[in-house]
Design brief:
The chain has 5 helices and 6 strands. It has 157 residues and is of the alpha/beta class. Helix 2 links the parallel strand 1 and strand 2.
Length: 157
């Protein structure tokens, strides 16, 4: 589990609905949610959770060649819950940039976390991300913000 996860979820829950979308199978996702004490939790809750069955493969062209990878199509959420969610009010935080292929304006790329004692001591990604999300929470349209620069002090909202 990434350092600061509980504080991160507690802080952003004041401003956002939180959902989980994992590239793992439902069985493993459910085990992680319960074993990490994320479900149930008294300070935050998830409005839904999706697993890899809600993802599909796309082919992307890169200078190094074509690559097939999975994506998390937010359009599926926007279509099925259009009264609540749209590209204007949805953000997608992920450490795999390819997952943003179908919703590039909603993606917030974060650094991957690989467990090690040093990583646990030094990783502050969720702390900084929490500050960013609180700073932009009242923006009228998240799709108009360049989230690739979220670590920068020069964010235009």
């Amino acid at each position: 589990m990434r350092p600061g996860l509980y504080d991160f979820l507690r802080n952003i829950y004041k401003y956002y609905n939180i959902a989980i979308w994992s590239a793992t199978a439902w069985t493993w996702l459910e085990i992680k949610l319960f074993e990490f004490g994320l479900v149930p939790h008294p300070k935050f809750r998830f409005i839904f959770a999706l697993d890899r069955l809600s993802m599909f493969n796309v082919k992307s062209a890169f200078p190094s060649g074509n690559t097939v990878h999975t994506v998390k199509p937010l359009q599926a959420i926007w279509k099925n819950f259009s009264q609540t969610f749209s590209e204007r009010n949805t953000l997608h935080v992920d450490d795999i940039p390819g997952n943003f292929a179908l919703n590039i304006y909603s993606g917030i790329p974060i650094k991957p976390f690989r467990y090690s004692p040093e990583a646990v001591r030094n990783d502050r990604e969720l702390y900084y991300l929490s500050k960013y999300l609180v700073d932009i929470h009242d923006a009228s349209d998240f799709s108009k913000i360049d989230h690739t620069k979220w670590r920068s002090k020069d964010i235009t909202i």
